[in-house]
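seq as requested:
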Amino acid sequence: VYAKMRARFGGRLRFFVSGGAALNAETARFFGAVGIPILEGYGMTESAPVISVNPCSRMKLGTVGTTIPGGEVRIASDGEILYRGPNVMKGYWKSDDAARETIDADGWLHTGDVGIVDSDGYLKITDRTFDERFGAARVREAVLRGEDPDAVIDREYKGAYEFREKTRKYLLYQ
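struct tokens:
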């Protein structure tokens, strides 16, 4: 049965890569048993897009793998995952303030995700931080200045979603 499944994928598929959301462990085990492992990874648009991935030869279920070559992961005191590497964007299109809030002066990308690095160097995502970088503080300040709340929310939140999740054209790379 498993040979037939592998054949349905073309017969040459060695593995899948999964990212964007947590991979269900049962799904991972099933495809591993079929002979087509799913390598879970992690990243974001701002890191073009990979930060870590499970290596084929040393997969660790429940983690998003080890940091890619040339990159560094550090866990901040509040648990936030910070990443620094040559694949980190240089900024957001026409939004230097947002870029400075996302990438600190030492070049660390603040991901907004919380995690741990285990003793083998594998990253595990455990939570999401409350992220005011994109909007909340600026919306509050703008409303206090008398701006229309709907216009401010539209500008700050919808624009941030496009920057972070949908629109790669707004990013500047080396």
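The helical segments are 2-8, 25-34, 96-102, 136-144, 149-166.
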